[in-house]
Amino acid sequence: MKTQQKYPRVFSFEFFPPKTEEAAENLRRTLGKLAPLKPRFCSVTFGAGGSTREKTFETALEIQQTTGIECAPHLSCIASTRQSIREILEAYRSHGIRHIVALRGDMPSGMLSAGEFRYANELVAFIRSETGNHFHIDVACYPEVHPQAASAESDLKNFKRKVDAGADSAITQYFYNPEAYFRFVDDCERLGIDIPIVPGIMPITNYSQLARFSDMCGADIPRWIRKRLEAFGDDRKSIRAFGLDVVADLCRRLLERGAPGLHFYTLNRADASLDVWNALGLGSA
Ligand code: FAD
After folding, report:
1. Which domain, by its residues, includes 168?
2. ipTM of the predicted assembly exceeds 0.90
3. What separation in Å is there between the alpha carbon of 241 and the centre of ligand 1?
4. Does residue 232 sit within a domain?
5. Predicted confidence (pLDDT) per residue in 158-184, tens digit
6. Ligand 1 centroid from CA 104, angstroms
7. By its UniProt entry, which InterPro entries does this protein fall under (predicted)?
8. Which protein residues touch ligand 1 with a CB less than 6 Å away?
9. Is residue 56 part of a domain?
């Protein structure tokens, strides 16, 4: 954890682009509660294969312009051409965006062509070759190993490719076992990876949704957490109280051992992230 302890802490919130005007209003209310915490940045996800290209852009701009907080649109490269990525980078640059979360993404169902990029390291290299150091580039990493990786070691080496291509920092997939993060960071140090690796935090509010997400992205819900959440059934209040306890404790342990901040997957809702934030006594970051 030595390399991580030297970095200043960065707190951030992730949102997805709303599909309807009602959802956009909900996001504005969420921002009304989270922006006063003064996160270092907010990020906005990018739909598989560019399906939210315009919405991601509009949402990122609206957040940046209305809150004054730096906004980092995510950009995934699978099924994209170099020219289409070039156009997006140019649009971001000309509208004052300086931070990107660069990803490979997952192939959307029904889409057959993988496009001109195979992996996220190629996207990072392309962003650097097209725009130099204009953008701060975040990339994804996986303390519990990406589900398609051949092995933990090869996944780690593939993460290093993104760092070598010019990534400035990384955000992890969410996890509930802090030891997975500590070991991952130590393994990164061993390989000479020296950028901030910020834990991604998924608050717990809804067990069936969390179980579905976790199956898809390869995040492990430890048995003792699963069993308790299952036992609560439809009792949302108990799920939230237990979830808050578990997630706040996780965050506390991460920060105490030197994690350089936290990135909250808010799912466009303020309360669960806010509760964790307050339980940690973070005040205005
Ligand atoms: P990569 O780093 O390219 O890795 C993908 C897989 O390929 C891994 O198994 C890796 O080990 C392997 N690999 C990498 N490079 C090589 C290589 N050169 N040779 C052989 N194998 C290689 N998805 C979205 O669609 N939109 C989003 O907005 C979004 N935001 C995310 C934000 C965060 C913080 C995280 C953690 C994930 C996010 N995702 C998002 C999910 C992400 O797109 C998927 O996890 C995707 O499957 C992998 O993306 P990546 O950028 O990590 O890919």
Report:
1. 2-280
2. yes
3. 32
4. yes
5. 999 999 999 999 999 999 999 999 999
6. 5
7. FAD-linked_oxidoreductase-like, Mehydrof_redctse-like, MTHF_reductase_bac
8. 45-46, 48, 74, 76, 101, 103-106, 119-121, 140, 146, 148-149, 154-155, 158, 161-162, 171, 173, 200
9. yes
Residue 50 is part of a domain; what is its CATH number? 3.20.20.220
What percentage of residues in the chain have a pLDDT greater than 90? 92
**149 confidence band (pLDDT: 50, 70, 90):** very high
Q: Would you say residue 285 lies in a domain?
A: no
Hey, whose CA ends up nearest to atom 36 of ligand 1? 173
Cα 273 to Cα 152: distance, rounded to the nearest angstrom: 30
